[in-house]
Amino acid sequence: MTDSSDSSASSARAGNSARLGAPPLGEFEDNRAERGFGGPGAQPPVSGRGGAGEEPAAGATATGPSFHEMWRDLAPIGRSAESGGYRRFAWTGADADCRDWFRAQAETRGLAYELDRNGNQWAWLGDPSAGDAVVTGSHLDSVPDGGAFDGPLGVVSSFAALDELRARGARPSRPLAVVNFGDEEGARFGLACVGSRLTAGQLTVDKAHELRDAEGISLPRAMERAGHDPEAIGPDPERLARIGAFVELHVEQGRALAETPHPVGVASAIWPHGRWRFDFHGEANHAGTTRIEDRRDPMLTYANTVLAARKKARLAGALATFGKVGVEPNGVNAIASLVRAWLDSRAADEETLAEVVAEIERAAVDRGRRDGVEVRVTRESFTPVVEFAHDLRDRIAGLLGGVPVLPTGAGHDAGILSASVPTAMLFVRNPTGVSHSPAETAAEDDCLAGVTALADVLEGLACR
User: Fold this and answer.
1) What is the pTM of this model?
2) Distance CA 64, CA 71 (A)
């Protein structure tokens, strides 16, 4: 933890408590190789099989490690000594270590542990087959050099909230579960929310088998190397039918709450968003001998497209980002033959989003004609606007005493599941708004307030 010394008005509203972060580098470096876990295929629950409201399995403790202990133990996994950020990519050694951590947390508490057909992990309090379960959780994977809070805060807080319920003596009348969804960020295979998309039937098995990482390793091969059966993946309607509500806690990605006295907010909606691949095809040539007027330089077209994306998004009140790019042949003294770049765009409504992306594509094609460059655009993923269930959202806001209700531009597993089950989200205040970065942070008091809020929500939904 580090002390917060920001004396600005917004920081004062965000609290002056210590901010949670990752431990010092060096001692926590994680270099374990890929290894198997939990496969092949789905696994049945293993321990603490009591019905809703029953005590943990014999010999198990009612509560597990504290929030701080869980945070400390999880923090070193997959952390880069160079950047201080996290590299927890799907089906790698770091991912396996996170999964081991999750299973240990479940078993320490006497919860029934389960690995489903799509590699998502579940920890059950009560009988999963009883139905109408209240589920919470998030994910443990990261973007390249991501922060400590995006995903893990939700999982750690979920276990801590269950502990708080037990400490209160609450007796659930519905099953409760904590879930860790696999490959939420999509950092390795280029598609976000793979685990929840497969479960909800929003990603076909054939499409999943076509996914490949930068080294050409397919998703099935990566899963197989990690000990999971790739032939088992697919829609899981029976599992979704067990869930009566899913509530995901997440660090706020933005700073709307920093301008309020509230450490916790409730999500109203997720903006529609998608990813588009732009291929700029030019002609490779010598950087030192090719005249400017003879060049077909795709880098020039790409650079102008980046500027156009910024302008079109700003004018429409939307967001557009080129955050990943590949160049061929990628030589210092060579004009590129191909620039391949990925656009992430988001807007408050689907019509605006479609217009912004279309304008960016037109700008790219028009500039390409001038530069002698062919432009091809492929939509790789799209998520429509998500309006969280209003009755559940309003009930949760009421349970928490009228906290702010706000939209977000970030995609989440809760958004994927919203088409199948009632879902809601809680946001924990982010004093800087920085996310997907090692600088991502949150105040300790706000994180603990998030645990209490989540426990209140779970108690209100599952114990009454």
Assistant:
1) 0.79
2) 13
